[in-house]
Specification:
With about 300 residues, this protein is α+β, with helices and mostly antiparallel strands. It has eight helices and 16 strands.
Length: about 300
């Protein structure tokens, strides 16, 4: 995390088609995105100066906006180019990339068809989301009170700002209790995900993970599933009930921020990070490295 407040970092931000000094990338207090959460975003990482799965993230950003009934006025190729430009101008190799799009301030009310759609892209240096030592030993998770909503009641497959409100509440409560994060159930009481990462369990050499129908099917999630299958490790997507957790030997979470992080504890359930978790952590680290640099290493 940055030692400075994020509104005081150095560098430039791409804002509606041009680069502006970091301190000048502001929006009006009456922006619809602030009042009504009509905002979508992405979280991405650059390794060795290259953005991992750059185009996949841009495509999802566009889809998320369409789900919230607005169109980002830039193509996927233009968004890709803008992200790379900001990264270059900020002189960063290992960085986090945050594109965000929102409705502006032309109309104030639930209805906002005529509001301008803005897009901004910021990048900053950001190390591991969790303590590196704890990532190997396994982080501790609380069990969240809030649940992921029924997909018939919220745009669950969009990376929409409003969906993270209950995540922030749950993570804050977990951290106050000494945990690193919290696992959330879905609206029917089944295992769903963490506050900003997908979750996996291991039993008898097989990986089990919840079906992503009421939460984001993460790009890192899909990458890690592919990595497991390359090693002929079976990956089973299914409904998982909390009372099954005692049967699993290993647990890990995935996300652009979390990467692959081992879990040692979820409330009263215990896990021991083992060979499959460690292998996938290593495989993911190798996968995200720019291919030319990885081959030369």
């Amino acid at each position: 995390m940055s030692e400075k407040p994020y509104d005081r970092l150095d560098g430039v931000i791409w804002y509606d088609g041009k680069l502006v000094p970091w301190s000048e990338a502001t929006l009006h207090i009456c922006s619809h995105g602030l009042h009504y959460a009509s905002s979508v975003f992405e979280g991405e990482r650059a390794y060795g100066g290259e953005i991992f799965k750059c185009t996949e993230h841009s495509e999802r950003l566009k889809r998320s906006a369409q789900t919230l009934d607005f169109e980002i006025p830039y193509s996927v190729a233009e968004i890709d180019a803008a992200k790379r430009l900001v990264l270059e101008k900020n002189g960063q190799q290992e960085a986090y990339i945050r594109p965000v799009s929102w409705r502006g301030s032309e109309m104030m009310g639930v209805s906002a068809q005529n509001n301008k759609i803005h897009l901004a892209i910021a990048t900053w240096q950001w190390p591991s989301y969790f303590d590196p030592v704890q990532r190997l030993k396994g982080i501790r998770l609380d069990l969240a009170d809030y649940r992921r909503p029924d997909p018939a009641t919220a745009p669950a497959r969009a990376k929409a700002a409003g969906l993270y409100m209950i995540c922030t509440i749950s993570k804050h409560k977990a951290e106050r209790k000494g945990y690193a994060d919290a696992m959330m159930l879905d609206w029917q009481g089944r295992v769903a995900e963490c506050t900003g990462a997908n979750i996996f369990f291991i039993k008898d050499g097989k990986i089990h993970t919840p079906i992503a129908d009421c939460f984001l099917d993460g790009i890192t999630r899909r990458t890690v599933m592919d990595l497991a299958r390359r090693r002929s490790i079976e990956v089973i997507e299914r409904r998982i009930m909390p009372d099954e957790l005692a049967q699993f030997s290993e647990c890990f979470i995935t996300g652009s921020a979390a990467e692959v992080t081992a879990v040692s504890e979820i409330a009263d359930w215990r896990f021991t990070p083992g060979s499959i978790t460690r292998q996938l952590m290593d495989d993911y680290t190798a996968e995200v490295q720019p291919k030319g640099k990885a081959a030369a290493a």
